[in-house]
Design a protein that fits this description.
- The chain contains 15 helices and twelve strands.
- With 442 residues, the protein is of the alpha/beta class.
- The two termini are 27 Å apart.
- The relative contact order is 0.12.
Length: 442
């Protein structure tokens, strides 16, 4: 659904009027385009030794500069905080970053690279301080600019393939609606090629429309062969999606006891294997708990939580038997409602929070055979479902993020495609929010 307010405040009169009245002034976000540069201007690297990062960026064709030429604005600022050992060490790099912000380009990027909190009391304290600093900074940026962080495990270099993959994603238009978030990198990945999912087979549940259909499209764009899955009543729409991405359709109820086997069998028989599973299928049964009938609770939990839990248990068995790809990826669609809760969604919030817990618990299990399991938690996304929200409420939901607008299905799909890629091989057990840094929750 089109956000006409953005069109209005982007016009001459609308821009002037919204500024005079102190109204939100969201901008059209910079999203991925194969022809567009990685960042919309030169990059400044703030680091005790910026040579490694500068060399990495230069290899991507990015201009790294110490100062701006006339008329230029910073496309991105990268702050290397991996060496901080005491809170006092934050002062110089943080204040240096502050001096650049007035010259940040529209839809520019700020990325911090720090260490996962650990070590001595001083080290743990200073590393922990980075988190709320970054989230607070993200709330200060405007004009579509975002601030996100990469937290590296000790021993991982800032220019390692795992760090480089995360940095490329956060600098790019693929992370348009990711704001105030951290990617925790604990293992090695590999560089992100042009078609990172070439040769992979991906199963996407709930693929007949909306976010699921967009996930199928983006995974196919990145090279994957897609098995599009949905219930039989959605068969016609499902076939259109599968044909559009040159994949195959599988009509299936995800609550069926044999769902995982049917998916694996279809993928293997039609495409030679199964490497990626996206648990996107879900339903809504909103109701205040005091008014909730048992079927509204039980049906939702069965589809949104028990189905992916049961399927993943079987997929783990198949992986251990060598019947899945060598480095399988499992991604679940969580929600900000599963993090912060939402009125009238006790069932939905419980299911989505359960998916986050499942992701954390399964991470060490799938790591044993080279796999990863992660989740993506969308906030307010412009879909047919959110279009049915009353107009006033819809506007409020749109404006209560740092980016002052709703996201698009493609924003969720881009995050999922990244987590499926070799570049994200070092990210496991993470829930990445795609919510424009919604005010509620983390």
């Amino acid at each position: 659904m089109t956000d006409k307010y953005i069109d209005f405040v982007s016009s001459g009169l609308g821009k002037k009027l919204s500024a005079q009245l102190g109204l939100p002034q969201p901008v059209t976000l910079r999203r991925h385009s194969a022809k567009a540069p990685l960042v919309p201007g030169p990059v400044r690297v703030i680091s005790p030794d910026g040579d490694d990062l500068a060399t990495l960026l230069a290899s991507w064709g990015v201009k790294v500069a110490g100062e701006l030429a006339e008329g230029e604005r910073w496309g991105a600022v990268i702050v290397d905080l991996t060496a901080i050992a005491h809170p006092r060490d934050l002062s110089d790099p943080v204040l240096a970053l502050g001096s650049t912000l007035r010259k940040l380009a529209k839809c520019g990027r700020v990325v911090t690279i720090s260490r996962i909190p650990s070590g001595s009391v001083d080290e743990h304290t200073s590393r922990s301080a980075v988190e709320a600093f970054l989230r607070s900074l993200a709330k200060e940026l405007r004009a579509g600019a975002t601030a996100n962080g990469i937290m590296l495990a000790d021993g991982l270099a800032v220019d390692s393939p795992a760090a480089a993959g995360s940095l490329s994603f956060l600098l790019s238009g693929r992370s348009a609606f990711v704001d105030g978030q951290f990617l925790r990198v604990t293992g090695e990945g590999s560089a992100d090629p042009r078609r990172p999912l070439e040769g992979k087979v991906a199963a996407v549940t709930g693929a007949a429309r909306g976010i699921g259909a967009e996930i199928a499209r983006i995974l196919a764009r990145d090279g994957a062969t897609v098995v599009a899955i949905d219930v039989p009543p959605a068969g016609e729409s499902l076939s259109k999606v599968a044909n559009a991405v040159r994949g195959t359709a599988l009509q299936l109820d995800v609550t069926s006891p044999d769902a995982a086997d049917r998916i694996a069998d279809h993928a293997t028989e039609r495409h030679g294997g199964l490497d990626i599973v996206i648990h996107n299928a879900g339903i809504l049964r909103d109701k205040l708990l005091a008014n909730m009938a048992p079927e509204k609770w039980n049906d939702l939990i069965a589809v949104n939580l028990i189905a992916p839990l049961t399927m993943n248990a079987r997929f783990v068995e198949l992986a251990r038997e060598g019947k899945l790809g060598a480095s399988p990826r499992f991604i679940s669609l969580a929600s900000t409602s599963g993090i912060a809760g939402n009125r009238g969604q006790t069932n939905y919030g419980a299911a989505k929070s359960g998916l986050i817990g499942m992701t954390e618990a399964l991470a060490p299990v799938v790591a044993e055979f080279g796999g990863t399991v992660n989740a993506v938690a969308p906030g307010f996304i412009e879909t047919d479902m959110t279009a049915s929200i009353p107009p006033v409420s819809r506007q409020i939901f749109r404006r209560t993020s740092s980016l002052q607008q709703g996201g698009l299905p493609v924003d969720v799909a881009e995050a999922i495609a990244f987590l499926c890629s070799p570049a994200a091989g070092g990210i496991n057990g993470t829930t990445l929010r795609v919510c424009g840094q919604n005010i509620v929750g983390k």
